[in-house]
Specification:
Layout (H helix, E strand, L loop, with lengths): L29 E3 L8 E3 L6 E2 L4 E9 L5 E6 L8 E2 L2 E3 L6 H13 L1 E14 L4 E13 L7 E7 L12 H14 L18
Parallel strand pairs: 4-9
Antiparallel strand pairs: 1-2, 2-3, 4-7, 5-6, 5-10, 8-9
The structure holds zinc ion.
């Protein structure tokens, strides 16, 4: 959990190339004290522009079948290719979280859903994301294979493939969902499950 490295820009190393230059004037940003700011910031030494770098929101659903199973996809793209996760993706600038949940689920599973209760909200600092998971009711469509999903399959609460779940945030969301519908089932400890892709 603590392996994330924050570079000289005060942000995870992998993110640095994306915020290296001033988006207003193109000069290289510098990290340090900025007047009026409570913490060091990336700012432009030429024009004074302050670059605020914040986590992005990943919107996901746990689509539940009429038999009480959760739909997961086997990921067709990195990170986590070949492993299981719930459908989801980044919130676009022109949509609400529930619109994004419905759109991403349709794109990745072929299923039309209605987003219901929020199962949970999960920070993952290493990936600079916050993941929201909605429980979702399937209202139409049919499971399809897409570039992003090699397989779409329902899993009963007692049959979640824990060691093959791609992301820690997915494990935490599935744990919270299982705890709600089957509190009698043992919950895996995310720390004991090895996942090469983090998440
Ligand atoms: Zn500038």
């Amino acid at each position: 959990m603590s392996e994330v490295r924050f570079g000289l820009g005060g942000i995870p190393d992998w993110l640095e190339p994306m915020v290296r230059f001033c988006s207003r004037c193109g000069v290289r940003l510098a990290f340090g004290p900025v007047a009026g700011e409570e913490r060091d910031r990336l700012a432009c030494p030429s024009c004074g522009f302050v670059s605020y770098v914040n986590p992005r929101l990943v919107v996901t659903t746990l689509p539940i079948t009429s038999r009480g199973e959760v739909i997961l996809i086997r990921r067709g793209i990195e990170p986590g290719r070949g492993q299981w996760a719930q459908p989801g993706g980044f919130l676009e600038i022109d949509e609400t979280v529930r619109e994004a949940a419905v759109r991403e689920t349709l794109e990745e599973t072929g299923l039309r859903v209605e987003a219901g209760a929020i199962v949970g909200l999960y920070s993952r600092v290493q990936a600079a994301v916050v993941v929201i998971a909605f429980e979702a009711r399937i209202v139409g469509g049919a499971p399809t294979i897409t570039r992003e999903s090699l397989e779409t399959r329902p899993f009963a609460p007692d049959a979640i493939p824990w060691p093959e779940i791609a992301f820690e945030t997915s494990i935490r969301a599935l744990r919270d969902w299982v705890a709600g519908v089957r509190p009698d089932l043992p919950a895996p400890d995310p720390a004991t499950i090895h996942r090469p892709f983090g998440g």
